[in-house]
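Exercise: predict the fold of this chain.
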Amino acid sequence: MSQLDPRVTAARPDLASDELRGRVEAERFVTPVDHQVIIPALPIRKAPDAGAAMDDQLLAGEIFAVLETRDGWAWGQSRADGYVGWVECSGLTDTIRPVDHVISVLRTYAFPEPSIKAPPNHLLSLNAGFTAGRREGRFVEAIGLGWVVEAHCLPVGEAASDFVAVAEAFLGAPYLWGGKESLGLDCSGLVQMSLQAAGQAMPRDADQQEAALKAIWEDVTGTAERRRGDVVFWPGHVGIMTDSEHLLHANASSMDVTLEPFAEAEVRIREAENPVRAIYRPR
């Protein structure tokens, strides 16, 4: 059988998704049961332990296909980007509501009632999704989450016009391995969330994103000129050019989303034996 990427393959020696029958070997196959995220952000971890490493996050409204539950943990796969791992069951519900709106600003509060004076229920990040209910004044009900300012969300299908401007809004956000929310994210999380807000679905990790953009964008690796919107890949790292000279990226060097001269970043990363591998430009 062909080698499948374990990050996005819901299979273990003892258990696998029925969707993979005939493609992987496992002791038993089960049909995944979709659950929906009901909290602002839910970590996908390597093991059923709150202290285990976080590989990815699920945002409110996203779907997680569950294959197994054990001691308050669920093992399965994100329907958004395919990542496999363990999540806490307390962040999920088996009642699926169709998402028809998404948060379109960096972050916004969900209140228990349509009032800015009410103590908020949640802080929702860009691309979190919800089912819209009642409208009252400047608020719309995010069913199951609270009330959000309607100007801070968009109907599903509408998108930002400039993914770079979306990325720039994250400037100063803290670096968090595996994160993709406004309170903390990593290099590929920044790229994934920015492009998603602009209507372009993107895989989770930098190498996956490199392969995806290679198929649909122009390869400008060999050209000397950089432009706004160029996405630059190093082994294990990715950043976005905001103009011909500056790179925006979430990085563990500064431990935040920072904007710096591309030449300086390129030298520093190259000295760590990581030369630029590819640069892709929107067509």
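Check your answer against the key: The chain has a mean pLDDT of 97.
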